[in-house]
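Query structure, 561 tokens:
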């Protein structure tokens, strides 16, 4: 006999079939009898009921939920000090049912049937397990010196009285399960809280690069397009730093994003002006930035005609500052937000990336200058930069799930997008809609534009981020490829809002062009991008729903700390 076999407790065998001794049987999660090592047995090694001392072991024949009428959920305790005792690890309500159906034994009456039931439960073990020995049977008799009840106090009689049975009275399972569940839940909660980094630790996460996580600096991230882009980046698992001076953006949009993505180390907001070189350099110095999406810019055609120097300075100078900081701090990827206004008024439609750029207003001219600054630096210096310039058309819509929307600042409504003006008119904020120009050489005399949904536009930015090529500047038009007149737009807005909007036609606005719409073939072919939100009325209806829920726009009085 091996030393290992000698060390095992001397317990009697429970079978005549050559199976292992009782000590090798363990309880599985479902209560099935199984061996620890033998293949072909149901369950696994989960010794529920095994006591640390190694002397007393409890083995469950079967679970009550799967027991046939002939095989009760019987526990046999093998004890060197007490012999064999029947016990049941079930609730009192289950005991009553079992007693009535004869599925649990009274004293010694069910010993033989219990032994026989083992073979039905464990059908693979043949021949049937023999009954207990005579000495073991006598040990269960009430007069036996080895016979003891396991209860510390007698049960009271009544409907629940089963005092004639030899069973242990364990702690009610329902209470035990609840307590275990509560303890486990509290432990898990404590572990979760302890693992959460502090706010200072969260700030440190932006200073270090993390494998598999792209840290994107989003300039103008508190604005309409920038906030939607930030949301998409966060959804995709990126880390985002928003830089915005809030001259046109909404702090409420940043608050909404922080509420949607509260996890520490995902999003931070920096209130800074890109026109301040020291502030820009500090942002790049303190943050491990991998890529930049540059949205921040003044962007109203009419305003650019009135304040041209402001537009040249804001767009070109700020872009140059971003580019210099990227080169200094070895940030290699830039997605630049440009515009179809750089094309001016082309003679041929639709507009391709090869269409000559002849802008006719300071906004378009400034954007074209910024593009040239980027191209000159990358092409002449052969800089280690991967740049994608997106020239997009007229942006409309809001998040289809209603999380973000378009909310121009009150002081900017006069310069805002046509969709915002339509909604203002529908809400009675303004008396009606003023359409500037109805004598253009178009199908109905009003300007024709290509209206691209903000969600599609953001998708183009993400694809550009993922496919930007090193040492190159790639340009794409981002539009639907379909031209819609202002008059058609107003009619769609009436349907979307259900409000009859009064329209007043005025003279042309300086700097406007009659017709522009894109040819998106290049971006479709190279980035596999195409506009999917192309039903104008549906797009406006979704945006209108958000606007009705936020009649005053975002709450910019929020405190982000």
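Result returned for the query:
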């Amino acid at each position: 006999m091996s030393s290992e076999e000698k060390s095992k407790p001397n317990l009697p065998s429970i079978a005549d079939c050559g199976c292992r001794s009782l000590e090798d049987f363990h309880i599985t999660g479902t209560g099935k009898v199984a061996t620890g090592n033998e293949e072909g047995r149901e369950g696994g090694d989960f010794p529920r009921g095994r006591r640390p001392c190694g002397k007393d072991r409890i083995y469950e024949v079967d679970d009550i939920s799967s027991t046939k009428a002939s095989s009760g959920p019987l526990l046999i305790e093998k004890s060197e000090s007490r012999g064999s005792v029947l016990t049941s690890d079930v609730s009192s309500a289950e005991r009553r049912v079992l007693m009535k159906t004869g599925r649990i034994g009274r004293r010694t009456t069910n010993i033989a049937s219990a032994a026989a039931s083992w073979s039905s439960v464990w059908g693979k073990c043949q021949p049937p397990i023999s009954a207990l020995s005579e000495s073991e049977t006598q040990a269960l008799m009430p007069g036996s010196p080895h016979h003891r009840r396991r209860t510390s106090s007698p049960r009271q009689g009544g409907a629940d009285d089963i005092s004639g049975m030899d069973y242990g009275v364990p702690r009610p399972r329902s209470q035990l399960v609840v307590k275990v569940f509560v303890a486990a839940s509290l432990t898990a909660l404590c572990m979760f809280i302890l693992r959460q980094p502090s706010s200072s630790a969260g700030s440190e996460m932006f200073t270090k690069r993390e494998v598999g996580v792209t840290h994107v600096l989003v300039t103008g991230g508190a604005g309409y397009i920038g906030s939607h882009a930030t949301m998409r980046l966060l959804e995709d698992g990126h880390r985002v730093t928003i830089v915005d001076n809030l001259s046109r953006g909404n702090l409420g949009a940043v608050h909404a994003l922080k509420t949607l993505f509260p996890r520490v180390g995902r999003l931070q907001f920096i209130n800074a002006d890109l026109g301040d070189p020291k502030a820009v350099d500090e942002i790049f110095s303190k943050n491990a930035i991998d890529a930049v999406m540059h949205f921040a810019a003044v962007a109203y055609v009419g305003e650019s005609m009135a304040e041209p120097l402001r537009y040249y300075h804001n767009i070109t100078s700020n872009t140059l500052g971003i580019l210099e900081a990227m080169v200094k701090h070895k940030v290699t990827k830039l997605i630049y937000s440009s515009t179809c206004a750089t094309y001016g008024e082309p003679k041929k439609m639709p507009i391709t990336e090869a269409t000559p750029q002849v802008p006719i207003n300071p906004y378009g001219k400034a954007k074209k200058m910024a593009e040239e600054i980027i191209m000159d630096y990358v092409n002449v210096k052969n800089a280690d930069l991967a740049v994608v310039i997106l020239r997009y058309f007229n942006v409309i819509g809001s998040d289809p799930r209603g999380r973000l929307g378009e909310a121009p600042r009150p002081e900017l409504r006069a310069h805002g997008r046509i969709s915002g003006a339509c909604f203002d008119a529908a809400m009675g904020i303004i008396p009606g809609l003023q359409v500037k120009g109805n004598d253009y050489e178009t199908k109905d005399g009003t300007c024709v534009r290509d209206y691209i949904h903000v969600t599609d536009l953001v998708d183009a930015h993400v694809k550009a981020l993922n496919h930007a090529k090193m040492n190159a500047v790639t340009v794409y038009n981002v539009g639907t490829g379909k031209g819609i007149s202002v008059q058609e737009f107003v009619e769609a807005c009436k349907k979307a809002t259900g409000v009859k909007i009064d329209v007043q036609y005025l003279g042309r606005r300086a700097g406007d062009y009659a017709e522009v719409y894109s040819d998106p073939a290049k971006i479709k072919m190279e980035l596999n991008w195409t506009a999917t939100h192309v039903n104008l009325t549906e797009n406006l209806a979704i945006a209108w729903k958000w606007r009705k829920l936020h009649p005053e726009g975002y709450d910019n009085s929020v405190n982000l700390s």
